[in-house]
């Protein structure tokens, strides 16, 4: 198993855990009686309670897919899709001038002995982890597919040592300056 594949598997399982925990916190928050849950979301215009249930169920479903689903390419795609949704939502809240940009974990964060500002920053870090990781791994997946199309009978060039690539190029009559001539 290549190093990229091991990193991808670890990344997928880490996101499965993160999404499971945040889904459970959101769903538990939606069951509480806090008045803020009945307020309308400033961007989507439906209640925060419904937003927490919808988001929690989406995260729960994605988490289950990450643990039980098929191959890694689809998992990376759905992580990227989820991260894109959250990024667009947060940018929309910022654009609308919402004072409390994203209380994504609901009122359960009041029970943690951590300042709300720190929990808010952790939310941005987790979003960055989802967004950057999924898009970078998706790019590696795409590049691997492009290499497989160019060299269908060979393994990926990324899996071959550099001296083998050099020898293959020399056998084809390709050297560092010949393409300039």
List the helices and strands and how they pair.
Elements lengths: L2 H28 L17 H21 L3 H25 L19 H35 L11 H10 L10
At a glance:
The protein is mostly helical. It has helices at residues 3-30, 48-68, 72-96, 116-150, 162-171.
What does this structure look like?
This protein is mainly alpha-helical. The chain has one domain. It is 66% helix and 0% strand. Helix 1 runs antiparallel to helix 2. 17% of the residues are buried. The C terminus is likely disordered.
Q: Could you give the order of the helices and strands?
A: HHHHH
Helix content: 55-70%
Whole-number radius of gyration? 22 Å
- For the record, the count of structural domains works out to 1
Please, what is the average pLDDT? 78
Total beta strand runs: 0
Shape: elongated
Q: How many separate helices?
A: 5
Quote the distance from N terminus to C terminus.
Answer: 40 Å
Largest sheet: none
What's the multimeric state? single chain
The fraction of residues in strands falls at under 5%
Structural class: mainly alpha
Low-pLDDT windows of residues: 176-181
């Amino acid at each position: 198993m290549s190093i990229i594949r091991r990193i991808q598997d670890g990344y997928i399982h880490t996101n499965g855990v993160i999404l499971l925990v945040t889904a459970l916190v959101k769903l538990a928050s939606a069951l509480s009686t806090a008045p803020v849950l009945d307020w309308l979301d400033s961007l989507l215009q439906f209640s925060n309670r419904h937003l927490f249930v919808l988001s929690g169920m989406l995260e729960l479903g994605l988490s289950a897919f990450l643990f039980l689903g098929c191959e890694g390419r689809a998992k990376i795609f759905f992580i990227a899709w989820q991260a894109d949704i959250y990024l667009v939502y947060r940018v929309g809240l910022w654009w609308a001038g919402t004072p409390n940009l994203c209380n994504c974990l609901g009122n359960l964060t009041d029970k943690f002995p951590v300042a709300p500002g720190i929990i808010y920053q952790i939310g941005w870090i987790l979003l960055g982890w989802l967004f950057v990781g999924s898009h970078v791994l998706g790019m590696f997946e795409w590049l691997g597919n492009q290499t497989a199309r160019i060299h269908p009978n060979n393994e990926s060039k990324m899996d071959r040592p550099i001296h083998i690539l050099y020898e293959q190029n020399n056998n084809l009559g390709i050297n560092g300056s010949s393409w300039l001539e």
